[in-house]
Design a protein that fits this description.
Elements: H1 2-43, H2 48-66, H3 73-89, H4 91-109, H5 118-146, H6 151-168, H7 176-196, H8 206-225, H9 227-230, H10 235-276, H11 286-316, H12 319-331, H13 350-354
Helix pairs in contact: 1-2, 1-6, 1-7, 2-3, 2-8, 3-5, 4-5, 5-11, 7-8, 7-12, 8-10, 10-11
Length: 360
């Protein structure tokens, strides 16, 4: 009897160590990705470093939330708070990078002889570039704030120390508890997404579509964290959810453009009046801006129709139910109390506010 109890205890300890190893390996990779991009954010020679730094910060937060009990919980709370500041602080620069890239492409696609629409698009591009230059000091200060008190060095030290000890003990990446815990996290995120999805019946519910986008993003990131446990079993699911997220991201971009262009038109008209004393010079800009706004509205309708069709196919193929059945099987392998996490809910959080941007 005593031997049996000892065996069960050793099994649980090894399984918990496996969870820590999964967490450490994923966090180590994302931390390296973040640090690699920081120099590029400071140089501001390309738009990718800002984007990749934000993606890495989100992935780090998701993983830290899932595996909060694998580290000192007070430290995890502080790490996530500072990482959230990075995601938010780089948001304005990322938004402007995306806007500029889109407008440059849109302008290049116009007929060179199109003298009616070019002035407004060119004026918009000028203002966006000015705003991006003004946003760069905030982006740099965000990086400085993140590393205040050597936060990244502290994270790296904690993660690598734990990872080294686990690897020297030949701890496996896969175990019944890892499977069960990973599956439980994915199931919860999938159910959040499906709970938000009925708004897809209403093509005009922009706020609802944005909530579905956030839910899809969190499901995708959660599945990516869990890849070591499931190997290639999640590859198809990640691809399908990424496509949902891509459609919703494109739709959200259009919503932002439609709203922002209306504001830009009013601001530019006021600037014209302030400079000239009347609004007549603005008349040459308005056709292009209205043309772009109409194009974004039409594009939104087309992409929304593609999203609905993709979602319909997923339902017909029993994608969601099959994924849940597979995951539930793993949850039942090693029943356990719900793990301590610092996951954020989908609705009404700072996560929802800060993700109100074109960034994917």
């Amino acid at each position: 009897m005593d031997d049996d109890r000892g065996h069960r205890k050793a099994t649980v300890t090894a399984a918990d160590s496996s969870c820590r190893l999964v967490a450490c390996q994923y966090l180590s990779g994302q931390l390296d990705a973040l640090v690699t991009q920081m120099a590029g954010v400071r140089r501001n020679e390309d738009i990718e470093p800002v984007h990749q730094a934000r993606v890495a910060s989100r992935r780090l937060r998701v993983a830290l939330g899932m595996f909060a009990d694998c580290f000192d919980t007070k430290k995890v709370g502080r790490w996530r708070k500072r990482l959230r500041g990075l995601t938010r602080g780089l948001g304005p620069a990322r938004d402007l990078d995306v806007h500029i890239a889109f407008v440059e492409g849109f302008l290049a696609g116009l007929d060179e002889k199109d003298r009616r629409h070019r002035p407004g698009i060119e004026r918009l591009l000028l203002r966006l570039r000015q705003d991006r230059l003004a946003a760069q000091p905030e982006a740099v200060e965000t990086l400085n704030a993140l590393n205040k008190g050597d936060l990244l060095a502290e994270m790296h030290g904690e993660i690598e120390r734990a990872r080294f000890l686990l690897r020297t003990r030949s701890v496996p990446l896969q175990s019944p508890v890892v499977f069960a815990r990973a599956a439980a996290h994915i199931l919860r995120r999938q159910r959040d997404l499906l709970a938000a999805a009925p708004v897809l019946d209403d093509p005009d519910d922009a706020a609802g579509h944005h909530r579905v986008r956030i839910a899809a993003k969190k499901l995708r990131y959660t599945m990516e964290v869990c890849i070591p446990a499931f190997d290639k079993q999640l590859a198809g699911a990640i691809k399908a959810v990424k496509k949902v997220q891509s459609f919703l991201g494109d739709i959200h971009d259009c919503d932002v453009w439609i709203a922002n262009l209306g504001t830009f038109v009013e601001q530019e008209r006021e600037r014209t009046i302030e400079y000239f004393g009347h609004a007549r010079p603005f008349n040459r800009f308005q056709p292009g801006l209205e043309f772009l706004r109409a194009e974004r509205a039409n594009h939104r309708r087309q992409v929304f129709a593609e999203l609905v069709e993709h979602w319909r196919r997923l339902d017909e193929e029993r994608f969601w139910s099959d994924l849940e059945t597979m995951l539930q099987t793993y949850v039942e392998i090693a029943p356990q109390p719900h793990p301590a996490t610092q996951d954020e809910s989908i609705h009404g959080t700072q996560e929802e506010i800060e993700d109100n941007s074109p960034a994917q």
